[in-house]
Amino acid sequence: MRITATLSVLLVAAIVSYHHMHELVRKYGEGDWAAALIPLSVDGTIIAASMSLLLAAGTAGAAGRCRGSLPNYEPLLEWARLQSCCAQAGSASAAKSEDS
Question: How many domains does the chain fold into?
Answer without folding.
Answer: 1
